[in-house]
Design a protein that fits this description.
With 192 residues, this protein is mainly β. It has a single domain, classed as Porin (Beta Barrel). It has 1 helix and 8 strands, in the order H-E-E-E-E-E-E-E-E. It has an 8-stranded antiparallel barrel with strand order 1-2-3-4-5-6-7-8. Strand 2 and strand 3 form a beta hairpin. About 4% of the residues have low confidence. This is Outer membrane protein beta-barrel domain-containing protein.
Length: 192
């Protein structure tokens, strides 16, 4: 009988120790790339970003901040087969988002989020082109401005290893002066 109680005691201590060693990771760092549409003239490019997320409320609520960079060439085909080559189009993006996870599963997440965005925009936009014989006169406007707006995104994420996750994301960002930019992308990261 003493042997039974000894085995039971060691088993209870072993189970307790195993449960006590379970680690809930509450932070995540992710890197990713989005294909981002730009305002007129219609074009797009790859935005590279780094995201930090803090998981709260039994992993149902996620607060996140991201920093991104995009640079694409700025060439526009004008009438008469003339090509305007402006300075590259650039975006330095910062987004903050609060999202809710609709799936109660430690391996999968389906989140919908919303938050503010602040983007630096550098553009060179053709306003008009005048043709006089073989001479072309172009009136363009250089844009260097900070845009403030809002963003909304939906994201699916899967844990592929213990602390490694992969995700796909789609969203919209709306600015009063720069218009709407849509995005779709992939990301990967780790939790700690």
């Amino acid at each position: 009988m003493k042997r039974f109680w000894a085995i039971l005691g060691f088993w209870v201590m072993g189970v307790s120790a195993a449960l006590a060693q379970k680690i809930d990771y509450k932070n995540a760092i992710r890197v990713g790339v989005d294909y981002l549409s730009l305002d007129a003239p219609d074009s797009g490019g790859n935005r590279y970003l780094v995201r930090y997320a803090r998981h709260l409320g039994n992993d149902r609520i996620v607060l996140e901040a991201s920093l991104g960079y995009l640079k694409v060439s700025n060439s526009q085909l004008l009438p008469s087969q003339f090509v305007f080559e402006g300075r590259p189009r650039k975006r330095i993006t910062t987004d903050v988002m609060a999202s809710f996870d609709f799936v109660r599963n430690p391996q999968h997440a389906l989140r919908l989020g919303i938050g503010p965005s602040v983007w630096y925009r550098e553009d060179d936009v053709v306003r008009s082109a005048r043709y006089e014989g073989t001479t072309v006169t172009i009136e363009n406007r250089k844009i260097d401005e900070v845009n403030i707006g809002g963003n909304v995104a939906v994201e699916y994420e899967i844990v592929v290893f213990d602390r490694i996750n992969l995700g796909v994301r789609a969203g919209l960002t709306n600015f009063k002066t720069a218009g709407i930019s849509s995005m779709v992308g992939l990301n990967g990261g780790f939790t700690f």
